[in-house]
């Protein structure tokens, strides 16, 4: 038998160079897999990639395809983060080789890598097309881990396209498959993605509670690689809840991990978030220091969108610290980058920052110009109201109309007593009116029974008629006075709303006092019929009651138009209504 094997070897000899080629591939593949965890930051990255490409080009069928597939897989994984566009060619080669050899599992693996690459390239629609085409093959031959990877890619694509309900469905499917197959690491990651969706719906309390539960599970399972990312996302929720001290604590906790892993992208983001939290905590030197650290990293990795947002934050920091030249420099740079990248929210916020900067410098014409641009980006559909708001905002910049508004609000409290007295007088007049009506009715009945009415009765009837007419006139005047007072109160409410401070609890209390004068029982009825409503829900209800559009709500609550639209959507869903029109009808009725 041994002789036969040797005979076969010499009957079918292979070129000696092919054996050396195979050996080179095996050694290179081992080298790549051994050092893949430091590859993305290695100074020898380019030379390794060039060597890999050279060896791949030299291959003409002699090297076994399984070795080539392993090498291609290593190259894709190591370049996915830093050379996303370059991996597409390697992925395509892997798909073709696996398909040719009927390696279904490996073909699925490369196609799933392709979904990740498409998401990282921002081609989210293509991701969804490819993923839906891949689902039948996954159902037939895919492993549970591969199915989870597909659903995760689909969820990420929907999330980046602002399709949050569909994204939640995809992440939920991923988590369900992971739970059913005891894939705890994937279960945690799918759950983490679900938790992060809350921030796009402005539900930061829910986001925080959900992520804390996931963190507990991850610590039980000892998933050391997932714990830092969960803590990172918890810090994001804490920051949005204005718990900046807690947010800073979580961020400082994860920094050593990312520094050890030399994960430059995560470090750049962590430094930027730390800068913002220190800024909101009024620790400006630390805010500037961490912002500059993030700027250095993001410049090195060419994170254009991250740099645009970081420049915007730096301009806000310099504005608050009175460094107006630096504020101008960074705001202008951020604006140019945001326009080029079509970052609409950042463009809008840059216009607002530039308006505030010019106002503080006394350049009111420039401030007015940027305010107009800011308002245009706020997407208002009411041109006349937009102009009135702009005019009021500019007056506030120049004359400090905010103080005047506060004085008017204080004066409105004194009117409350007068308002109650007028209501009591109105009730008394209505009672008199009712009595006169009864008397008149009885007189008519007596006239029907008596054919002749003497002069005394006629004079009495005339007198009652005149008194009734006088009561009606007084009632009409009082009704007009009350209507005028209500119009004045509604106008004051609209002035308060245009101040963009309703998100502040203190200012909300002032608003609540005035609103309750105009609609005394509204909040009680809403809470009675729908006890599950929170403070944010009631704010939205009040603005709907005042017939404010979605852009107006966004401006009043100092949130984006998209966030205001989602808030209305969540509200009518919470009230179990069919659509937004039913919500409007309900609130107008109460």
Number of helices: 28
The N- and C-terminal alpha carbons lie at a distance of 95 Å
Q: How much of the polypeptide forms β-strand, as a percent range?
A: under 5%
What are the segments in which pLDDT stays under 50 over at least 5 consecutive residues? 1-45, 379-390
Q: Percentage of helical residues?
A: over 70%
Q: Indicate the overall shape.
A: elongated
How many β-strands, per DSSP?
0
Output the structural class.
mainly alpha
- Give a quick account of the main beta sheet: strands, pairing sense, barrel closure: none
SSE series: HHHHHHHHHHHHHHHHHHHHHHHHHHHH
Q: What is the typical, i.e. mean, pLDDT?
A: 75
> For the CA atoms, what is the radius of gyration?
35 Å
Write a short abstract of this structure:
By secondary structure, the protein is an all-alpha fold. It contains 28 helices and no strands.
Task: Give structural attributes.
82% helix; 590 residues; single chain; mainly alpha
Walk me through the structure.
By secondary structure, the protein is mainly alpha-helical. It has helices spanning about 1-10, 15-35, 45-60, 65-80, 85-100, 105-120, 125-140, 145-160, 165-180, 185-200, 205-220, 225-240, 245-260, 265-280, 285-300, 305-320, 325-340, 345-360, 365-375, 385-400, 400-450, 455-500, 505-520, 520-530, 535-545, 550-555, 560-575, 580-590. α15 (about 285-300) packs antiparallel against α16, α17 packs antiparallel against α18 and α21 packs parallel to α23. The longest helix has about 50 residues, at about 400-450. It is elongated and about 125 Å long. It starts with a helix and ends with a helix.
């Amino acid at each position: 038998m041994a002789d036969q094997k040797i005979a076969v070897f010499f009957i079918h000899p292979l070129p000696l160079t092919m054996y050396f080629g195979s050996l080179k591939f095996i050694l290179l593949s081992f080298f790549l897999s051994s050092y893949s965890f430091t590859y993305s930051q290695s100074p020898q990255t380019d030379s390794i990639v060039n060597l890999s490409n050279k060896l791949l080009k030299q291959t003409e069928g002699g090297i076994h395809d399984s070795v080539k597939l392993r090498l291609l897989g290593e190259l894709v994984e190591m370049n996915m983060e830093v050379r996303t566009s370059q991996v597409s060619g390697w992925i395509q080669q892997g798909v073709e080789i696996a398909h040719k050899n009927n390696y279904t599992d490996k073909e699925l693996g490369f196609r799933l890598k392709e979904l990740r690459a498409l998401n990282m390239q921002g081609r989210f629609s293509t991701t969804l097309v490819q993923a839906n085409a891949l689902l039948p093959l996954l159902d037939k031959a895919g492993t549970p881990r591969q199915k989870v990877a597909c659903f995760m890619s689909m969820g990420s694509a929907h999330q980046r396209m602002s399709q949050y309900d569909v994204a939640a469905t995809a992440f939920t499917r991923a988590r369900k498959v992971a739970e059913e197959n005891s894939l705890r690491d994937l279960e945690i990651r799918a759950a983490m993605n679900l938790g992060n969706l809350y921030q796009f719906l402005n539900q930061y309390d829910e986001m925080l509670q959900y992520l804390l539960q996931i963190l507990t599970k991850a610590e039980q399972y000892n998933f050391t690689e997932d714990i830092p990312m969960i803590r990172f996302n918890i810090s994001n929720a804490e920051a949005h809840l204005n718990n900046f001290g807690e947010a800073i604590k979580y961020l400082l906790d994860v920094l050593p991990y990312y520094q050890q892993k030399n994960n430059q992208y995560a470090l750049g983001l962590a430094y930027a978030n730390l800068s913002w939290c220190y800024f909101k905590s009024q620790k400006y030197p630390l805010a500037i220091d961490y912002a500059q650290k993030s700027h250095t990293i993001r410049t090195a990795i060419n994170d254009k969108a991250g740099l645009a947002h970081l420049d915007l934050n730096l301009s806000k920091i310099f504005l608050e610290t009175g460094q107006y030249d630096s504020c101008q420099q960074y705001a202008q740079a951020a604006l140019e980058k945001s326009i080029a990248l079509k970052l609409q929210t950042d463009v809008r916020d840059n216009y607002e920052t530039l308006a505030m900067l010019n106002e503080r410098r006394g350049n009111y014409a420039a401030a007015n110009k940027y305010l107009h641009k800011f308002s245009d980006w706020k997407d208002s559909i009411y041109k006349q109201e937009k102009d009135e708001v702009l005019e009021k905002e500019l007056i506030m910049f120049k004359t400090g109309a905010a103080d005047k508004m506060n004085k008017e609000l204080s004066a409105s409290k004194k009117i409350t007593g007068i308002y109650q007295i007028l209501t009591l007088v109105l009730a008394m007049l209505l009672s008199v009116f009712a009595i006169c009506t009864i008397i008149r009715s009885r007189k008519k009945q007596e006239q029907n029974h008596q054919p002749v009415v003497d002069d005394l009765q006629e004079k009495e009837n005339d007198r009652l008629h005149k008194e009734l007419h006088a009561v009606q006139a007084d009632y009409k005047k009082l009704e007009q006075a009350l209507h005028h007072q209500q119009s004045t109160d509604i106008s004051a409410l609209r002035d308060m709303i245009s101040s963009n401070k309703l998100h502040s609890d203190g200012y909300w209390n002032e608003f609540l006092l005035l609103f309750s004068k105009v609609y005394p029982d509204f909040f009680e009825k809403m809470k009675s019929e729908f006890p599950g409503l929170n403070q944010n829900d009631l704010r939205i209800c009040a603005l709907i009651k005042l017939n404010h559009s979605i852009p107006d709500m966004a401006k009043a609550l100092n949130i984006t138009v998209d966030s205001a639209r989602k808030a209305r959507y969540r509200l009518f869903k919470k009230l179990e209504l069919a659509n937004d029109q039913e919500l409007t009808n309900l609130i107008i009725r109460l």
